[in-house]
């Protein structure tokens, strides 16, 4: 699944375009590296998101299949660290 689409489907961003912009600006990293929005995402990957002055890292437990509620999307990720 595309990185930008996964961030949107996991409800980490309100829209796919917001996710794409965050990826391009280096505010969303995949396994600690800058990647393109079209890069593939798999279960087990770690996503680091810049939020204000801190960073949040989550691990992808399972990829979403279709549109999910915010609560259902939370079950597919695990918080690794937050600063």
What would your notes on this structure say?
- Helix content is 25%, strand content 27%.
- It has 83 residues and is α+β, with helices and mostly antiparallel strands.
- The chain is globular.
Briefly say what this structure is:
The protein is α+β, with helices and mostly antiparallel strands and 83 residues long. The chain is built from 3 helices and 4 strands, in the order ααβββαβ. It has a single domain (3-82), classed as Roll (Structural Genomics Hypothetical 15.5 Kd Protein In mrcA-pckA Intergenic Region, Chain A).
How many domains, as an integer? 1
End-to-end Cα distance = 28 Å
**CATH fourth-tier homologous superfamily:** RNA-binding S4 domain
Highest CATH level, the class: Alpha Beta
Derived structural class: alpha+beta
Strand/helix succession: HHEEEHE
CATH fold type: Structural Genomics Hypothetical 15.5 Kd Protein In mrcA-pckA Intergenic Region, Chain A
The count of strands amounts to 4
Query: How many helices does DSSP assign?
Result: 3
* Beta-strand proportion: 25-35%
Level-2 CATH architecture? Roll
Shape: globular
| Widest sheet: strand ordering | 1-2-3-4
Q: What is the arithmetic mean of pLDDT?
A: 93
How would a textbook summarize the main sheet?
4 strands, antiparallel
Which tags fit this structure?
83 residues; alpha+beta; 4-stranded antiparallel β-sheet; 4 strands; globular
């Amino acid at each position: 699944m595309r990185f930008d689409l996964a961030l949107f489907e996991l409800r980490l961003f309100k829209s796919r375009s917001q996710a794409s912009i965050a990826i391009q600006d280096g505010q969303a990293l995949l396994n600690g590296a800058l990647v393109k929005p079209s890069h593939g995402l798999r279960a087990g990957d770690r996503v680091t998101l810049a939020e204000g002055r801190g960073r949040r890292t989550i691990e992808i437990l399972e990829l979403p299949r279709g549109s999910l509620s915010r609560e259902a999307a939370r079950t597919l990720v695990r918080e690794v660290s937050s600063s």
